Fold these 2 entries.
Entry 1:
Amino acid sequence: MTRWLFGDQLGPHFVDDHDGPILMVESRRVFVRRRYHRAKAQLVLSAMRHRAAELGDRVSYVRAPTYAEAVRAAVADVAGPLEVVQPTSYAAVRLVHRLEADVEIDLLPARGFATSREDFTSWAEGRGDKRLLMEDFYRDARRRHGVLLDDDGGPAGGRWNFDADNREPPPKGQDTLGVDDPPWPVEDAIDAEVRADLDRWERDGEVAFVGRDGPRLFAATRAEALAVLDHFIARRLADFGAHEDAILEGDPWMAHSLLSAPLNLGLLDPLEVVARAEAAFRNGEAPLASVEGFVRQVLGWRDYIWHLYWHLGEDYRDRNELGATGDLPAWFADLDGSATRARCLSHTLDGVAERGWVHHIPRLMVLGGYALQRGWAPDQLTDWFHRSFVDGYDWVMVPNVVGMSQHADGGVLATKPYTSGGAYVNKMSDHCSDCALNPRIRVGEDACPFTAGYWWFLDRHRERFSSNHRMARQVKGLDRLTDLDELVAQEDERGSSPP
Ligand SMILES: Cc1cc2nc3c(=O)[nH]c(=O)nc-3n(C[C@H](O)[C@H](O)[C@H](O)COP(=O)(O)OP(=O)(O)OC[C@H]3O[C@@H](n4cnc5c(N)ncnc54)[C@H](O)[C@@H]3O)c2cc1C
Ligand code: SF4
């Protein structure tokens, strides 16, 4: 059997039960069709080529314009049937099924996630009509995998959830959290070769990218990923929790792990990451609130999102319950931070342009929150996030954008839309103090587009949200605004132009 590895199946756990030949396929067409961040293209190709170099003679590394062409050509070369670990998107699963017309392909169960599809399905079915809450899924996963439990089976420290300790605003008077930077990768000849290829493709007019491609910041090999993990556990995890929901302009990384890209490339297994975090707590190297907060992300959120992607079906991506049909404006799509006076937006777009990454809260509160207020089409936003972020893959973007960020599923993932006015951005970040606009003003030249946009959004969806018990109070607040007509006229006029 030849095992066919996709570009996000690069760790040892995708081949440790196989000692035969391996097929890897690199297709340029992926980048021709859509405008990706250049740093993402660099990272993914570098990771694949590094893995092929490690696997040596065992691997047939095929480069071809299209994926299907490459596999068909390769299949003619490799004798016998193929096997492949379940790929991570509907499109890739369809490709495997299409190719089954030409060659026998054995589809193995998914790897790289903590909970199996079967376990998720039986958990979901066991709930009857109850909502598929992440908190319940996560507690079940803690019990299933024996993570952070006391001897009596209860949660370590007597609590399942330390969110209340982990929602601190940014520390006052500090530009950074003061945590050590992660170890940055040292580029090699493979990185240089990838860059030369990207340059050539761009020069030939075959592909176009967004964003800048500076020195590579994210792990592309297992060794680099382990170095980031080791350093995170030893030097950053203890500080992960308290300020995980806060933004500091001068500190893009804060105490976040930077592990999403290597996890999603398959270089690390989530359970090994969780085990390392738990060991740090048991050894007294990191406090429980931080460790629980981190484990919740990896064992809880990451797996929950993965399972919902499959559980909710392929047409979930098309959900648009709020009827948002606006086009993504060019300034936003092209990551042009200089287009806007709104410091939070400008800084966040610049961060994405520079790194192809910003942490969870700028994604949710700034980028997603603004798109929601403006009524931009969720499918366009999903595509944009997918292309612009180094860790973006279909399985992870669709539920995060459609459900968590745009409330386009009408409340399957989150009971209320996640969006806020400038006051909350002001509380959780240090953007507003240096912004030309004022978070307390909603109408006029100095009006904050988030504050005005928040009320504009609520007014547009007044009817729907007045019957949502978590939103009814906010909707009632509209009645107290004496300048609502003026505000609505102002925001109707602004629409999607840069604020
Ligand atoms: C609109 C939006 C889009 C997002 N798109 C992606 C994406 O394409 N790829 C991606 O991996 N994450 C995505 N996330 C989740 C999260 O923002 C990133 O995983 C995180 O910022 C990556 O940085 P980190 O590795 O330093 O994470 P940390 O803050 O250190 O968190 C640890 C790990 O938890 C996992 N995690 C936490 N939250 C989520 C989540 N909601 N979904 C999946 N995994 C999660 C990641 O693997 C992450 O590495 C998105 C969130 C939002 C709101
Ligand atoms: S005042 Fe408004 S636009 Fe300016 S940084 Fe704060 S939230 Fe953003």
Entry 2:
Amino acid sequence: MLRQVAEGVLIHGSEFCQSNAVVVQGRAGVLLIDPGVLGHEMACLANDLSDSGQPVVAGFSTHPHWDHLLWHVRLGAAPRYGTARCAATVRVRLPDARAKARLAEWIPPDIADQVPLDLLGLITGLPAGTARIPWDGPHIRVIEHQGHAPGHAALLIEERGVLVAGDMLSDVLIPMLDLTGSADPIQDYLAALQLLEGAAGDVDVIVPGHGSTGGADRVRVRIEQDRAYVHALRDAGVPGDPRIGPSATFGNDWLPGVHERQLQHLARKREHNVTPG
Ligand SMILES: [Zn+2]
């Protein structure tokens, strides 16, 4: 079921981690951002679009994590884009069918058989530094940053005031840092938040990759909340963050412990960086 969040911008929810697929209406069809997770949900979205005579003319993956790289055969064969760095990361991490099969281990077992991996990660990298999505529709600014994943991009649909945040600025998930792909994950994440803050003045609606949409007031609240979490993580403090704990885990046992894992990883990193003597 599609829900309009702004003129010409609709979202389609998944029961997996409150994921949001975003549909942007253009002149000849729609741009589909992070299409969804479960096969039957993407098929439902494909039906809704074809029933209303709106072919998918382009796709976009906000970043190279499996739940943002999926596609369904019924969505058609439109070009699917990501940033150059996102596409390069996919090529390295998912070079062949064996790698895809290994990836299946990361998918929560209760949904693994419902996630179609055939068309996973078939994206074309936009040239580095691309400022706008190349398509026949409203101008969409690409805001690329590091922090959550290599080549992560938020998209600002300028004429509609909608910020599609990817895996940033969620009201249900804490910031998850790219701990292995970055030399300074904390600094990268803070820089990403600052970049998004710079765009916040143009935003009327925020759509996170997971969680609830929010109005203009929520954008700054979420930026502050994420910054406070990252500061607490940096200072090994105890974040008073309501997103930590069972209420934010959607009943999956792979999500609890993210905060502890991040703390431990950063502590180990600090130990390595202290030169003895
Ligand atoms: Zn992610």
